[in-house]
UniProtKB/TrEMBL annotation:
Upper classification of the organism: Bacteria, Pseudomonadati, Bacteroidota, Cytophagia, Cytophagales
Keyword field contains Translocase: no
This protein's UniProt keywords: Signal
Species annotation: Pontibacter amylolyticus
Domain of life: Bacteria
Alphabetical list of PROSITE patterns matching this protein: FAS1, PROKAR_LIPOPROTEIN
Protein name per UniProt: FAS1 domain-containing protein
Length: 190
């Protein structure tokens, strides 16, 4: 019993040291997992691990940094399609990617009279099938739902789809996989 108490107190002490160490690291500019979950709008590793039970649209809807994508999907009436059985691979631009478009572009695309143009852009970000990062090879191309091809470029640990960089690969959804990217890709016809 005495050994068990010492073991328990030792574990508490080590846990306390670990917590203090995390706080110290945080003060030095290293972000802890807890701070990432509250400070970072993109999906955390914890989110990505539990994401597999949600469809692509539910996953994007629950990710604050993908709210502009969700708004665009709604304006284009594509939510239902991406909630279907799939599987689909979505290259999901962040809010920052949409904000980087020339001034007024997003607002113009969201207008009802430009719905087809928005559909063309969004379907250029979707590939049929469940394509994970391990399935990609340098120079390969993938046909999008838009009908145009995307080009894959690998450089060490960096993955580019056309000129967009994958910032978070392989987020599992119940009907496919999402790769978060840092740029809105425009189809060749635009």
């Amino acid at each position: 019993m005495k050994k068990l108490s010492i073991l328990f107190l030792s574990a508490l002490f080590l846990y306390g040291c670990n917590t203090n160490e995390q706080a110290t690291e945080s003060e030095e500019g290293v972000t802890t997992d807890t701070e990432m979950a509250t400070a970072d709008e993109t999906m955390t590793t914890d989110d990505a691990m539990t994401a597999g039970s949600k469809d692509i649209v539910a996953l994007a809807s629950e990710t604050p940094s993908l709210s502009t994508l969700v708004q665009a999907l709604q304006a284009a009436d594509l939510e239902g399609a991406l909630q279907g059985a799939g599987p689909y691979t979505v290259f999901a631009p962040t809010n920052e990617a949409f904000a980087a478009l020339p001034a007024g572009t997003l607002e113009n695309l969201l207008k009802p009279e430009n719905k087809q143009q928005l559909v063309d852009i969004l379907t250029y970000h979707v590939v049929e099938g469940n394509v994970k990062s391990t399935d990609l090879s340098n120079g390969m191309s993938a046909k999008t739902l838009n009908g145009a091809d995307l080009k894959v470029m690998l450089n060490g640990s960096s993955v580019k789809i056309n000129d967009a960089t994958v910032t978070m690969p392989d987020v599992a959804a119940s009907n496919g996989v999402v790769h978060v990217i840092d740029k809105v890709m425009l189809p060749p016809s635009m």
